[in-house]
Amino acid sequence: MTALRSATAAGPLTGEIAVPGDKSISHRALMLGSLAVGETVIEGLLEGEDVLRTAVAMRALGAMVSQQPDGSWHVRGVGVGALTEPAEVLDMGNAGTGARLLMGVVAAHPITAFFTGDASLVRRPMARVMTPLRQMGATFLARSGDRLPLGLRGASDPLPIRYRLPVASAQVKSAVLLAGLNTPGRTTVVEPEPTRDHTELMLRHFGATIDVEDGPEGRVVSLLGQPELTGRPVLVPGDPSSAAFPIVAALLVEGSNVLIRNVGLNPLRTGLLTTLQEMGAAVAVENARVQAGEPVGDLRVRGTGPLTGVSVPAGRAPSMIDEYPILACLAAAGRGRTVMHGLGELRVKESDRLTAVAEGLAACGAVVSVDGDTLTVEGDGHAPEGGGHIATRLDHRIAMAFLVLGIATREPVTIDDEAAISTSFPDFVGLMNGLGARIARPDGEGDGPRRAITA
Ligand code: S3P
């Protein structure tokens, strides 16, 4: 394990950066490119470990996936229904999105595949995708509790279903829709609360017929199966969930002025920006535009002093689900109480994020409590003392959130392992230090083993 320590910034953060490509869109681009006929050229793909695992898996399933010298990625797909049986186990690493979406893809192919992942992923629930995929005709043999490793035999004659999501999860919605691609007839997902719609947007971009309607039961998404998908160019915007870290860093240090270019602003992803506005933050969208079907803009962030505590409604959770750890760190330096409702899903992310955030903040001297699925953070207008040693639990967002907090605390904040950061934000430390952060290995601690994956 390689620890990292974040010391108080010497002054305001300044500069212009671009964050890496959107993780959700990157996984989907590789999968749909692999199911399309012809070539898909992807610009801005996130070259983080999670996505590289998906690239390796798509190759094992028969697609040609290559990284070009100019930084783009080319995918030559096999066509819907034509993936071939992988000879090796599909090791999805830390990636819940990669694992769950790919199970959907495989579930409607007459092939058998075995899935596994790292120590975090094998603890995460898979029943949420197995249940609908079984209804479509797939067969699973999984470890107890429906966890990885598992074997999946895809259906030879998949059945279209109408499935109402029992949890607000874009991963479950996407798994069902991706299985619906090679299923005759209409596959329908009903989501009581809208979740990120990158799968729907990209399916349409590749030529599928997909209808989306808002009705009394919620959002009804319906896909006409067995389309011919055609290879398309994909431009991946910067990941708003990654942008959240430099945004909050700038807000934590008064006088900061940071521009983050080319950030994805899909309205189903911007709950954090809404919350920041309510807290009184100076975050402005510049140069708003639409790029390959996704709204994109540059974000100008100014640190103007402590923000005000707010109540974040449960209904906003799907649009900022990955941003609660960093919001909680910001709230600890705010003025007043911030109450975040409806966070049950945080318990089944890369770690139990409710516990990880509460324990980490308490270790840094913040006043924090968890009651059921509500997280409350009290602030007195100053950053907490700091000095905490944070267990990152193979969770990139916990690692980055607490390194950002350390920028503002009086005592440095130390995380026990940097490894998970490379799943979504490989150059996090370099970018943050370029803005004025001081994140480094603690003195006297050398390199531990690094996880590495090449694609
Ligand atoms: C994702 C959906 C969310 C999110 C994850 C990415 C996606 O998970 O937390 O990081 O790309 O569909 P859930 O679907 O489990 O909420």
Features of the shown structure:
single chain, 455 residues, alpha/beta, UDP-n-acetylglucosamine1-carboxyvinyl-transferase, Chain, 2 domains, four-stranded mixed sheet, 12 helices, 24 strands, 27% strand, globular, binds shikimate-3-phosphate
Would you give an account of this structure?
The protein is an alpha/beta fold and 455 residues long. The protein is 28% helix and 27% strand. It is built from twelve helices and 24 strands. The longest helix has 13 residues. The radius of gyration is 21 Å and the shape is globular. The site of shikimate-3-phosphate has 10 residues, from helix 5.
Provide a compact summary of the structure.
This protein is 28% helix and 27% strand.
- Number of helices, where a helix is a run of at least 4 consecutive DSSP H or I residues: 12
CATH topology title of the largest domain: UDP-n-acetylglucosamine1-carboxyvinyl-transferase, Chain
List how many beta strands DSSP finds.
Answer: 24
Mean pLDDT: 97
* Bound molecule kinds, no repeats: shikimate-3-phosphate
What's the story with the biggest beta sheet? Answer: 4 strands, mixed
Structural class: alpha/beta
Shape: globular
**C-alpha end-to-end distance:** 23 Å
CATH second-level architecture of the largest domain? Alpha-beta prism
Question: Major sheet: order of its strands?
Answer: 22-23-1-24
Rounded Rg: 21 Å
CATH level 1 name of the largest domain = Alpha Beta
CATH superfamily of the largest domain: Enolpyruvate transferase domain
Amount of beta strand? 25-35%
Give the total of domains: 2
Helix amount: 25-40%
Low-confidence stretches: 446-451
